[in-house]
Amino acid sequence: MHAKQPFARRILLAFVLMTIVVSGLFSLSIVAVVHLVEEHLVSQEMHRELREVLTVDLRKDKAPRLDAGMYFFSSQYPGYAIPEEYSRLPEGFTELVDADQAFYVYKINSAGHTHMLVQKQDEFEARENILFGVVLAGFLLAVLGAWGLGLGMARKVMAPVRRLAQQVRHRDQLHALAPALAPDYPDDEIGQLAAAFDSTLGQVRDSLERERLFTSDVSHELRTPLMIIASSCELLAEAPLAAREQEQLARIARASEEMRELVQTFLQLARDKRHAMAGAEAPLASVAAQQMQRWAAFMAAKGLDFQCIQEGTDSGLYNATLLGAVMSNLLRNALHYTEKGGVRLILESGGFRVEDSGAGIPAGQQERVFQAFVRGVQARGEGLGLGLSLVKRICTQQGWHIALHSEEGLGTCMRVTLKQSV
């Protein structure tokens, strides 16, 4: 898979590559034109001079009148024998480069004889090399100029994108009073992107607000019937009841208390994080003691060894409702999935862990257990798979961290690292 390049770098590379292609084709065209013009003009001139030598000078028994650096050879006239290195050249114009010397050769065949002119082209070759050097320098300067210009253009093009990303990153965009982004930009592609972001963000805000209001309203409306149930249980507890009736009454009271705590937890989650901390705070050991008292009877009824072990001292204060909900859900989960052995609540400095000797969680399911409505393959009880999802939401809101370590058949360990309230 190819590595993804930053957009600004892709703009720069595209600009430089385009310049390389255009400048390269232009430079090659100059070189090709120079060679074509050279061959055409020189061959015409040498053809004219060779004809003049044959039809004028030699017919009048005169020595060929040639410019300096030009030589005449012929198989017809004595004293002008053709050198061996030129004898196999094709008819017409040929350019020879021999070591440090370069020659133009023009050859014609007439009446069974061969005639040719040879002209040194050292001076022209030197000028040609200078021209090619200038073309190469121009090509390199064009590439360097394209790099600098492309870098400036990429920065200018990406400036509004970076600005938009900075605004999105640092503004509290989910806040209802956050200003719209689109008015800060012209009606171009960036403005359309900002407008699309505003539109999508508005839908997210509306959805979150509806969820917050629903959770808050439902939780608030449930308080009254829960208080009625709790007070009714207290009144019935004072009446003479049979053992079976007292057991059922105790179950109703426990369920009512659990629902009250759940309602309080939902209210805390529905609030803004800054206001969620306004609830009562308690140390870790105090919350653990409450949960030990609450779950001890259930653990004993199932024949499990239930222990609270203190490995470290923690002096922090935490939201009692949310910490209790996290600890309670982890203990309930351990109870449901442990058939023999025991469950241990271990307090550490800055956190706690819940260990059980239950069935464990297969490696392929460990990342999914914190998702809503996901239950293990050996599900117990009548739950909907929301306990660990709720735990994850609480930890995320409070800045806590939960880690899972489990081996199938060897039990599970849930470790929660806490962050003190500020």
From TrEMBL:
Record's keyword annotation contains Phosphoprotein: yes
Name of the featured protein: histidine kinase
Chief localisation class: membrane
PANTHER family given in the database record: HISTIDINE KINASE, SENSOR HISTIDINE KINASE YKOH
Family annotation (Pfam families): HAMP, HATPase_c, HisKA
The HAMP domain, residue ranges: 155-209
Superkingdom of source: Bacteria
SMART domains: HAMP (SM00304), HATPase_c (SM00387), HisKA (SM00388)
E.C. numbers: 2.7.13.3
Enzyme class: transferase
Residues in coiled coil: 242-272
Keywords tagged on the record: Coiled coil, Kinase, Membrane, Phosphoprotein, Transferase, Transmembrane, Transmembrane helix, Two-component regulatory system
PROSITE patterns linked to this entry: HAMP, HIS_KIN
SUPFAM superfamilies per UniProt: ATPase domain of HSP90 chaperone/DNA topoisomerase II/histidine kinase (SSF55874), Homodimeric domain of signal transducing histidine kinase (SSF47384)
Transmembrane portions of the chain: 12-37, 130-154
Ranges where the Histidine kinase domain occurs: 217-422
Subcellular location, record wording: Membrane
GO molecular function annotation: kinase activity
UniProt keyword Kinase present: yes
Gene3D superfamilies recorded: 1.10.287.130, 6.10.340.10, Histidine kinase-like ATPase, C-terminal domain
Catalytic activity: ATP + protein L-histidine = ADP + protein N-phospho-L-histidine
